[in-house]
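Page header: ASSEMBLY MODEL / four components / 524 residues total.
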Amino acid sequence: MATPASSHGLQPLAPSAAGPLFRQAKRELQRVVESGRYGPGDTLPSEGVIAQALGVSVGTLRKAVDELVHEHVLVRRQGKGTFVALHNDDRFLFQFFHVEPREEFPVADELREREYPHVECVAFVRGRADEAEAAALRIKPGDPVVRIDNRLSLSGRAVVHDRLVVAAQVFKGFNEKRFLERPSTVYNLYQTDHGITVLRARERARATAAGRETARILGVALGRPVLEVHRVALTFGDKPVEYRISTINTASHDYVSLLSKR
Amino acid sequence: MATPASSHGLQPLAPSAAGPLFRQAKRELQRVVESGRYGPGDTLPSEGVIAQALGVSVGTLRKAVDELVHEHVLVRRQGKGTFVALHNDDRFLFQFFHVEPREEFPVADELREREYPHVECVAFVRGRADEAEAAALRIKPGDPVVRIDNRLSLSGRAVVHDRLVVAAQVFKGFNEKRFLERPSTVYNLYQTDHGITVLRARERARATAAGRETARILGVALGRPVLEVHRVALTFGDKPVEYRISTINTASHDYVSLLSKR
DNA sequence: AAGTGGTCTAGACCACCAT
DNA sequence: TGGTGGTCTAGACCACTTA
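Prediction written out in full:
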């Protein structure tokens, strides 16, 4: 109440800007969130206040927020407010973790129980980006990177070997101790420690024969067919922030994908 | 203009119904589309007319249509009208076909060219559902089914072996001639010949060793790792209408999935 | 020019949450 | 009780399509 009118950091929309008003409003909201003025978990000003600050009606502002909610940038809670999206275990599970035990008959409710994997770190090393890593992360070959190998288990069985690669320059101060002691998911750590929010990802899957490292980590026979998923995780502006290769033992688990309710 | 007021088949919303108005309106629209009163490609009455028929404001009606557009049930075209969604090649390509040539470095614009696969039918047989097929299609084991095997090629190279299974009782009069002479995609045929619109699908992927049939059809060595995708295609009310196993030679192609812009 | 969907507004009322 | 987001309305005006 007593805060000065400008404290929210929102600018009135330029009168000459292009496109529909609600999209301009969306861009302004995105700008203020990316600027860090509101960090993950923070409450935004109420819709009425934002609308007035931007010089648009509440209905128009709501359309802008609608889109940012769909894109996982914001979260709305009735009666409480609008918040900058936070990475928690549930979100990781639903948006980014797609390995499930095989069902004998694919009846499959939407309501089946999902299990959060148990993660063990088997390697944490610094190195220099090779060509593929550099291309994926849009850095230069030879730039410093951190590579992390994890073993993921479901119901006590090792199912996935994850190799994560991030640019050291983007994740300054990234170290093994913080990584091992993280209270939640890796994406939550990116967010709390480095201010990087993973919004979405591109994945490409292929079948390969298990190599020596994977065979050892997952306990499968050398040369057995395994599923290899290459993921590039993206933040604002589709900037790549993590390159991850997940090698999955699909002997009794599947990689699940839902083709678009919406 | 001269048509009687009731010709659109829309009922005013019951005054006692549950949930928000726009969702009731959505259900009524869905009901009238599922009833066949408006078939694929048909133009719906204008938003003003529908709104009046249902007894809601245009804004509310638009919210209902918004959701049905997101779910691929309806399509809007400014200045022309609102239409019942049609299955064309483009939609198939973007919503259901996820195999792409491997890129050496995963830079990957959203704007890359996509190629429609060349399809050859290698088998069309009638049979009886096994347990897995019956569970997937929610029919009884032993019920009559049609099984179709196709070879899909990209740039002249055989990449995918598709095995489609559909319930014969649902696809009455489904025959090889119509199938082979279809002008567009299989899902388009389902729609035009059998009034079945595929809205979405569930997929589960795993790596396996190429079996004899796949090895022959795709021209890969027996036992080579291949990607097997099990798809259940769903229509209104999440009713399963097709069970499909795609076996993909991922030697130089990937199975691509985008994790949720929205 | 007439008809369609697309945007925008201003305001009412409801449902939920805190205090 | 007061503040938040959620729903709904009625109407204005814009952009696109067709005739």
